[in-house]
Design goal:
Blueprint (H helix, E strand, L loop, with lengths): L10 E7 L7 H11 L3 E4 L8 E5 L2 E5 L12 E3 L4 E2 L1 H13 L7 E4 L3 E2 L2 H13 L12 H10 L11 H14 L1 H4 L2 H9 L3 H6 L1 H15 L3 E2 L1 H10 L3 E9 L19 H6 L10 E7 L2 E4 L27 H11 L12 E6 H7 L6 E5 L9 E10 L5 E3 L2 E3 L4 E2 L6 H4 L2 E9 L16 H14 L2 E6 L7 E3 L1
Parallel strand pairs: 1-10, 1-11, 2-5, 2-10, 5-7, 6-8, 7-9, 11-14, 13-15, 14-20
Antiparallel strand pairs: 3-4, 12-13, 15-18, 15-19, 16-17, 20-21
The chain binds inosinic acid.
Inosinic acid binds next to helix 4.
Length: about 475
């Protein structure tokens, strides 16, 4: 069996997370950017994403610069991305410090802009929302996309046109003025680096955004046209997904989602392409465990997020909280953007069966090495609906005790999904130096076979460690 992508001479490959993000997309994009692609493009999300780029001896977390930047090939930030110009410029400065060229970086003139008050409102809403909090990354993402849809958004091109920028900024601040005068907002503003006045002072924001525009001008272009052109000219185009399918505003576990469509359809649209122009969608799956940051239900979760008791946690502990801590440590599961400890749990097939409904051709399995020392590996094969009442969904009515094989795109219902598991023996050896699929331990190959047969997609790449060479391509 061979991965189809190695044989793709030209066309579009999309890399899309199939769970709640942080599946390890960055490494796969970096690999394909260097070995396969002519052009790399991002189409969704913003500085809520985070990937690690090694510069010199040090690793740095980047949020907006595409993961393919080190390849030196054209890297595009498409029209669907929420651009925070302040963060983008600081990432460019960081690259310059290490002598990494970003001459080939371009961003779409149509991409929407994060404004300082977006961040403030995002944080204020979160701190006021108690147990229903989404656990956003606090980067203003929800506000950018809702302004976009409400037709109050500012776009990158506005940075270059002072009159237009002033007019739109004033309108946008006016639009948010009621909320900006709420006490919760004032509290966050007091804590913020610009203090109370900085965020509301139109002239100050205008001045700093015009300055951003002057610095970013060489990198602003109609990237969506360039990407379409690249496809027409038979180039190899790599699309970098941000977040993941279960976080999609349209198909994720609503409302515990981000605010862009992080499926392959949203990714294609965010760079000016059609989903049908994507030749291969590589679905990235962490496993056989998974992780989540932020709020919402997580049926197979092992223990409470953030619990750091058990300093020498044993990955084989009978206590799920201890086991959770051990998996988190072994996988270094701490948020790249927020440093929050990620929630971890077992691989959930009803969620994976749901995610692939949105278009996946083959899988990349990442971070299996995290479970090297695990004696028993559990995989959730289906749920039992544990609600005490019937749940009316129109054509379908869920009854207590019903079996559910494919999850629903609804965070509320996930709370009543009681996970049922199949247990597999672990492989109990270090797989990080293995480079051929046939050399993987039989126990892991059996798990891979089980997942492939269950979900109907081949796992064509297995990642056994963070380095580029720790990758097995079948
Ligand atoms: P927002 O995108 O910052 O508005 O956050 C909305 C939800 O998406 C929260 O639960 C975040 O934790 C989650 N989220 C956003 N970006 C990422 C990501 O890159 N990885 C994992 N979770 C994310």
């Amino acid at each position: 069996m061979y991965s189809n992508f190695t044989q793709l001479q030209k066309g579009v490959i999309a890399v899309v997370g199939q769970q709640w993000g942080d599946e390890g997309k960055g490494k796969i994009i970096d690999l394909l950017a260097n070995s396969w692609a002519d052009v790399i493009a991002r189409g969704t999300g913003g500085a809520n994403a985070g990937h690690t780029i090694r510069l010199g001896e040090k690793e740095h977390i980047f949020h907006l610069i595409p993961s393919g930047i080190l390849s030196g090939k054209p890297n595009y930030i498409g029209s669907g991305v929420a651009v925070d110009p302040f963060i983008l410029l600081s990432e460019m400065e960081k690259l310059a410090e290490y002598g990494v060229s970003y001459d080939n970086l371009k961003m779409s003139l149509d991409a929407h802009l994060v404004l300082p008050h977006h961040i403030i409102i995002d944080r204020a809403r979160e701190s006021a929302s108690g147990r229903n909090r989404l656990g956003t990354t606090g980067r203003g993402i929800g506000l950018v996309y809702s302004d976009h849809v409400a037709r109050f958004g500012l776009r990158v091109v506005d940075l270059l046109n002072p009159d237009r920028l002033r007019e739109k900024l004033e309108r946008n601040l006016e639009y948010h003025s009621k909320e900006l005068n709420q006490p919760a907002v004032k509290t966050v503003m007091k804590e913020g680096p610009l203090g109370i006045d900085g965020f509301l002072d139109t002239n100050l924001v205008l001045e700093s955004y015009l300055e951003f525009g002057r610095k970013l001008r060489p990198y602003i272009a109609d990237t969506d046209s360039s990407i379409r052109q690249a496809v027409e000219n038979g180039k190899r185009v790599l699309l970098e997904g941000a977040q993941a399918t279960l976080l999609s505003i349209d198909h994720g576990m609503y409302p515990m989602v981000t605010s862009s469509d992080s499926t392959v359809a949203g990714l294609a649209k965010g760079v000016g392409l059609l989903e049908s122009q994507v030749h291969i969608c590589l679905g990235i799956v962490k496993g056989p465990y998974m992780s989540k940051v932020g709020g919402g239900n997580f049926p197979t979760e092992l223990g409470p997020a953030g619990d750091e008791s058990f300093p020498n946690a044993d990955i084989n502990s009978e206590n799920p909280v201890e086991q959770c801590i051990a998996v988190r440590k072994s996988g270094n599961e701490y948020g790249a953007t927020t440093s929050r400890p990620r929630r971890v749990g077992w691989l959930d097939l009803p969620l994976l069966r749901y995610a692939i409904l949105f278009g996946v051709d083959e899988f990349v399995l990442t971070k299996a090495d995290v479970l090297d020392e695990c004696r028993v590996i559990k995989i959730c094969t289906h749920y039992i609906y544990s609600g005490t009442d019937e749940y009316d969904m129109g054509e379908r009515v869920l009854k207590p005790g019903d079996q559910v094989d494919v999850a629903f795109g609804d965070d509320y219902l996930l709370e009543y999904m009681d996970p049922q598991y199949k247990e597999f023996p672990g492989w109990l050896c270090n797989i990080s130096n293995i480079r051929s699929f046939d050399d993987l331990p039989e126990e892991l190959r059996n798990i891979i076979k089980f997942i492939e047969e269950d979900v109907g997609r081949e796992i064509t790449i297995v990642s056994v460690g963070p380095d580029r060479e720790q990758t097995i391509i079948r």
